[in-house]
Aquaporin Z (Marilutibacter alkalisoli), 238 residues
Amino acid sequence: MIKRLGAEFIGTFWLVLGGCGSAVLAANFGGDGNPLGIGLLGVSLAFGLTVLTGAYALGHISGAHFNPAVSFGLWAGGRFPAKDLVPYVFAQVLGGLFAGFILWQIASGSSAFASDPAAAGNFASNGFGELSPGGYSIAAAFLCEVVLTAMFLVVIMGATHRKAPAGFAPIAIGLALTLIHLISIPVTNTSVNPARSTGVALFAGSGAISQLWMFWIAPILGGMLGGMYYRWLAPNND
């Protein structure tokens, strides 16, 4: 179990550092219109690449959840034991927080770095209402997070089904996460992962922290709905 938790810690660290790091350090590098800035598409791809590479590197050790919503969803789908939920979530949150800390240290090394707790997407944080990048309401943000996390679990469980083509699951899962970000960055800055949200919220300030509850409830609810749906769809899914 210690090695499995170590894999979840470092995998979640990689996801948050790579995904949120791309948003903080590279998305608008050089200002708007600079061809070196990677923008929304680049950030979306970065999140997908972290999951793809992390799953190939660590999936055989821990299952490569890197996300409390995935762990809860796999439990609801009959793929993960309840006794392992708390240790996995603890390791994931610690990995996310460590990534947030490292990213803050790197970002702070530039004189151009500024943090405004009242700004939408500050330090790659998630938000709704005035903290949504596109000004989306709490209802729209909640629905978006629930539905996209549910679909993420459907892809995960389908791609890792024993009848699915062997060896390709990380590709499908990574591309699914890329697509999710392409859809929802304007809405919530994309969570679908409470550990990812927590890892940067504690450094982003009071605004992100005050809304963090939603980015625990909605993704976990969505993950469980997706897991239960796939369990119904393919009952012999282990």
Notes: The CA atoms of residues 18 and 50 lie 6 Å apart. The domain at 2-109+119-233 is CATH 1.20.1080.10 (Glycerol uptake facilitator protein).
